[in-house]
């Protein structure tokens, strides 16, 4: 067979090979276009769903990224007007420990009331005194305030917040409570049943909640019905609302939602209250009445032991309000010290040294509310006859007290 014949026979095979190569190139080209389009679409989606940076944030955004207010200086919340102030006349201040001045906060403030097992309606400072959690009167929402700059950030959106329950020892978490709303609750009261009409909020979610001031995330603590205090940054001390079992104290983990019913083995009953923990959760102090309405005792012990050192004792409500210092070396408490008038007792502040076991009485009336540092206490006092509240700074070294409000 000559060369010309061979070329004629091989030409069809070569043509088929080029057709296949061409189809392959077309397939690769189409695939490249598809991948490029998908990548571009994915990039657009990622940009849309990614968190906005600070320059993109604005008040019109329905879910702006949480940025907590800056605070590096200590302050303490003060509600003016005394015990008789109404919500409309009450003013809100922060006492600055650096400037030693009261700085007005331009926010309405609900009147403070305490409910056992729930919390306080008034403002509550974080343990490090850098922030204050409060409920505003107009919307009943929870807010976070910088005690340094007075910048406020709204935490909740739907209102109905009634109590600030507590701060974690690290000053990073706030537990607050929204009470349940019901027809029974609305018709209960001094006026009794009234033939009126009321509209309920279909979006109301009640119960205890924990808010992380660093992440801006909120978690509902749906198993918790009664809150005592934080033990450490992960665990809280709770009770049941059942009368038959509320003499037991339960440890609840706010991260794992584990309830440990056996960690606290002893029964405490109605007479155990006013719990205070050391920062690491290893020690606790509390008021214990072994015969409720008869006696009162201040107990300092390893947690969860019921008995330890009996710091003080007396008649019912004679000694109370134990408060462990930040480093655990001191324990402040108050003891009845005569009467301003019949039925209106005075209280003096005492401090117990956990190392040398000595107790010292200070010449200031009231009860220890907050440790500023290991040498300084914020002391609250009230004059029930005048319906007024007072605040003092007590220096433990000098024994001197300074009125700040």
Structure in words:
With 405 residues, this protein is mainly beta. The chain contains 2 helices and 29 strands. A 4-stranded antiparallel β-sheet has the order 6-7-8-9, with no helix packed on it. The chain has a 4-stranded antiparallel β-sheet with strand order 10-11-12-13, with no helix packed on it. A hairpin with a 5-residue loop joins strand 12 and strand 13. It starts with a helix and ends with a strand. The relative contact order is 0.08.
Helix and strand arrangement:
Layout lengths: L2 H47 L25 E5 L12 E5 L4 E5 L8 E2 L3 E2 L3 E2 L5 E5 L6 E5 L5 E3 L8 E5 L5 E6 L4 H5 L19 E6 L5 E3 L6 E4 L4 E4 L11 E4 L5 E2 L11 E6 L5 E6 L6 E8 L6 E7 L3 E6 L5 E12 L2 E10 L5 E7 L1 E7 L2 E8 L4 E8 L5 E3 L2
Antiparallel strand pairs: 1-2, 2-3, 4-5, 6-7, 7-8, 8-9, 10-11, 11-12, 12-13, 14-15, 15-16, 16-17, 18-19, 19-20, 20-21, 22-23, 23-24, 24-25, 26-27, 27-28, 28-29
Name the CATH superfamily assignment of one domain. YVTN repeat-like/Quinoprotein amine dehydrogenase
The first-level CATH class name of one domain: Mainly Beta
Alpha-beta classification: mainly beta
| CATH structural architecture of one domain | 7 Propeller
Shape: globular
Give the strand tally.
29
Alpha carbon gap, first and last residue: 119 Å
**CATH fold annotation of one domain:** Methylamine Dehydrogenase, Chain H
Poorly predicted segments: 1-16, 26-31, 33-63, 82-86
Mean pLDDT reading: 83
């Amino acid at each position: 067979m000559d060369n010309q014949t061979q070329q004629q026979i091989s030409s069809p095979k070569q043509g088929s090979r080029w057709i296949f190569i061409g189809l392959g190139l077309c397939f690769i080209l189409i695939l490249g276009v598809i991948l490029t389009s998908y990548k571009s679409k994915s990039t657009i989606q990622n940009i849309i769903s990614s968190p906005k940076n600070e320059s993109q944030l604005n008040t019109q955004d329905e879910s702006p990224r949480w940025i907590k207010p800056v605070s590096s200086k200590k302050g303490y919340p003060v509600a003016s007007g005394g015990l008789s102030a109404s919500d409309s006349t009450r003013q809100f201040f922060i006492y600055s420990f650096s400037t030693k001045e009261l700085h007005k906060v331009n926010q309405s403030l609900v009147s403070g009331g305490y409910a056992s097992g729930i919390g306080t309606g008034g403002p509550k400072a974080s343990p490090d005194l850098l922030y204050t959690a409060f409920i505003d009167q107009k919307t009943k929402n929870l807010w976070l305030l910088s005690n340094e700059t007075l910048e406020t950030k709204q935490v909740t959106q739907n209102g109905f917040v009634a109590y600030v329950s507590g701060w974690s020892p690290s000053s990073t978490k706030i537990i607050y409570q929204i009470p349940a709303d019901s027809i029974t609750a609305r018709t209960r009261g001094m006026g009794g049943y009234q033939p009126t009409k009321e509209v309920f909020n279909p979006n109301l979610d009640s119960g205890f909640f924990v808010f992380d001031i660093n992440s801006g995330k909120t978690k509902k603590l749906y198993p918790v019905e009664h809150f005592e205090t934080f033990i450490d940054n992960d665990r809280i001390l709770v009770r049941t609302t059942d009368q038959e079992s509320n003499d037991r104290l339960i440890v609840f983990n706010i991260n794992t939602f584990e309830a440990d019913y056996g960690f606290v083995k002893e029964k405490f009953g109605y007479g155990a209250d006013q719990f205070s923990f050391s920062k690491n959760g290893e020690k606790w102090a509390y008021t214990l009445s072994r015969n409720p309405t008869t006696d009162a005792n201040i107990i300092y012990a390893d947690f969860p032991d019921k008995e330890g050192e009996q710091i003080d004792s007396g008649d019912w409500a004679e000694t109370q309000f134990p408060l462990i210092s930040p480093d655990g070396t001191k324990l402040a408490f108050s003891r009845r010290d005569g009467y301003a008038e019949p039925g209106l007792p005075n209280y003096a502040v005492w401090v117990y040294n956990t190392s040398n076991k000595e107790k010292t009485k200070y010449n200031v009336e009231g009860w220890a509310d907050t440790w500023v540092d290991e040498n300084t206490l914020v002391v609250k006092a009230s004059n029930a006859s005048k319906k007024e509240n007072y605040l003092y700074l007590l220096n433990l070294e000098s024994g001197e007290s300074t009125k700040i409000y």
